[in-house]
Amino acid sequence: xxxxxxxxxxxxxxxxxxxxxxxxxxxxxxxxxxxxxxxxxxxxxxxxxxxxxxxxxxxxxxxxxxxxxxxxxxxxxxxxxxxxxxxxxxxxxxxxxxxxxxxxxxxxxxxxxxxxxxxxxxxxxxxxxxxxxxxxxxxxxxxxxxxxxxxxxxxxxxxxxxxxxxxxxxxxxxxxxxxxxxxxxxxxxxxxxxxxxxxxxxxxxxxxxxxxxxxxxxxxxxxxxxxxxxxxxxxxxxxxxxxxxxxxxxxxxxxxxxxxxxxxxxxxxxxxxxxxxxxxxxxxxxxxxxxxxxx
Length: 295
Known about the structure:
Elements: H1 3-7, H2 11-23, H3 26-33, H4 37-51, E1 56-58, E2 63-65, H5 67-91, E3 97-102, H6 104-111, H7 115-122, E4 125-130, E5 144-149, E6 157-160, E7 165-170, E8 179-180, E9 183-184, E10 195-198, H8 205-212, E11 222-224, H9 227-235, E12 240-244, H10 249-254, E13 258-259, E14 265-266, E15 270-275, H11 282-292
Parallel strand pairs: 3-4, 3-5, 10-11, 10-12
Antiparallel strand pairs: 1-2, 5-15, 6-15, 7-12, 7-13, 7-14, 8-9
């Protein structure tokens, strides 16, 4: 391939190659680009003809990169990223729509209260997507993701939302801190009250007892598959919840819940905001992460 051939190579061909290589599918690349599968295939065919080499091995139900395609891909991605970043820096161009994927609990308790500020700082339309665990990460094409873990994520951008701290909480009425008739209700020992349990990666009541040195607490009779539903049960006075303090901060401030202990259970895992550089600009990442993260 001579220099004039390279100079005349349409950028749309290169973008088609990068999308297909990254997503592992001509069909997925077409969906992302708003084109047809045949248009993506045609553009890559033209690119291969111009380069004089095959970039993909085409099989019945999948495509794989050739050695040449695999070697070229990081250079293409770096060039496209540099083009996007310089365009944004010079002309203020960025994505006008961002999709954020998170669990229902985090969307409700953490993201929704910050959505107005999030849309303002990002300059984009924000779309929330509820993560379905069974669907798998491979199907998740959101620009931003929030996941619970220790921070070992294979992405370009990662920032913890907050430090995980847990402590028992309950409705004021359950522990006798709300007025009844002419005086306060009789206060009760919260350690004797029913427990609420939530499935998931957070520590539970057993860890709480081990850290605080307290006797084993009553076995939880009510169990929930999301933190949000467990929190709703706690607000309704059904029991004591070992709660993530950052997620219940508004309930504590409004008096819907009260803390029952000064003890705090720390955990090395927390929610992380994640993104790949192909999904949003550097400026948007800085603005969005600054809006959503407390640390």
